[in-house]
Amino acid sequence: MGIYYQKGVMPVEAKEFLRQYQDALTDIRNLEAEAEEIESLAMRITVSTDGERVQSSGRKDRMADLAAKVADMEMEIMDMRTDALNILQKVERIIAQVEDKDYRQLLHMRYIEKRTWEEIAVSLRKSWRWTCSLHGKALHSVQEIIEKNRATS
After folding, report:
1. How far is it, in rounded angstroms, from Cα 136 to Cα 142?
2. Mean pLDDT in residue range 68-83
3. Which of 81, 106, 125, 143 could pair with 11 as two cysteines, CB 3.0-4.6 Å apart?
4. How far is CA 40 from CA 30, 64, 66, 75, in A?
5. pLDDT at site 4
6. How many whole angstroms separate alpha carbon 23 and alpha carbon 111?
7. CA-to-CA distance for 52 and 45, rounded, in angstroms?
């Protein structure tokens, strides 16, 4: 299956492949926020029980459950960071195979550094429209590399 360049149409597979790293980072940030919220909840339970003379075992159990949940989430976050690093390396390897240096630079800024189109255009000293057009061509190069790697593996 070959890639045919059609103006305005970008290969979805290439874009999804390149977005994997940023998606992984978003998932990590979401889980970190959830863990912080649970930790904050546990602290509020601790503060509310400190003033009491007699502590019920129910509150202690809830605190222990929340602490265990946070610990599990922290382990999951560490695993997700390892996975994100592996994804980053895969994405960087594909970008490195792109022959055109402008394509490589644009792809790195967009998918690794998560820069906006405006920031990329300023950095490349090109118009926003030119930058978007270049992106489409760069995606086609990535798609060709993905398909070539798929065919050889």
Report:
1. 10
2. 95
3. 143
4. 15, 14, 10, 18
5. 36
6. 10
7. 12
Ramachandran assignment for 2, one of left (phi > 0), alpha (psi -120 to 50 degrees), beta (any other)? beta
Contacts of 34 (CB under 8 A, 6+ apart): 73
Least confident segment among 35-39, 71-75, 78-82: 35-39
What is the structure's pLDDT at 42?
76
CA atoms of 127 and 136, how far apart (whole Å) = 15
CA–CA separation, 123 and 111 (whole Å): 15
Query: How sure is the predictor about 67, in pLDDT bands with cuts at 50, 70 and 90?
Result: confident
Using CA atoms, how far apart are residues 22 and 17, in angstroms rounded to an integer?
A: 10
Residue 126: what are its φ and ψ, rounded to 5°?
-130, 170
Is 54's pLDDT higher than 80? no
Residue type, position 110, single letter: R
Q: If 0-12 CB within 10 Å is exposed, 13-18 middle and 19+ buried, where does residue 134 land?
A: buried
* Average confidence (pLDDT) over 118-139: 96
